[in-house]
User: What shape does this take?
Amino acid sequence: MLDLKNLAKPFAGLVKGAAPGKFGDYVEHSAVTQRLLLHCGPYGQTVVREIYDEHKEYGHTLTGVVLRLTLTIDGKEIVMEESGSVDKPYKLTNKKTGERMNNGERLKLAISDAHKRCAMRVGLGLHLWAQDDYFLYNQLEVKNGGSQENKNS
Assistant: This one.
């Protein structure tokens, strides 16, 4: 289970503190993508479903997606589905133009959220959710014959 162990290894030096009003530390989408490519190779990504809500002022507004990732981990094809949402979809504005975001921009945000959640389901970045209760990497290190002393290397 070498790929799984490598996916479960905590991010070092790439973790950013939560933005004001947000919960939990995070890692950029680009770092998650790089680790998936490094340990799983190219992978498939499909938007299974777009989720829309009706808003009295903004109309048909994309607020989330269900995303499917197809990964190869330790020689086995794994299909993972997760939901992703747009945080505060009605208040978001484009930083460059100052205009309210469109559904395409919301779609990118929801896909990024779902992508990270799919990755978490295979151990990547799980330490950010588990915090002090995180033990997966250490247990995989022991199971694969390594020592617990190398848990953050």
Notes: The first helix runs from residue 2 to 8. Confidence is low (pLDDT under 50) at residues 149-153. Strands lie at 44-55, 59-73, 76-85. The chain has one domain: 2-144.
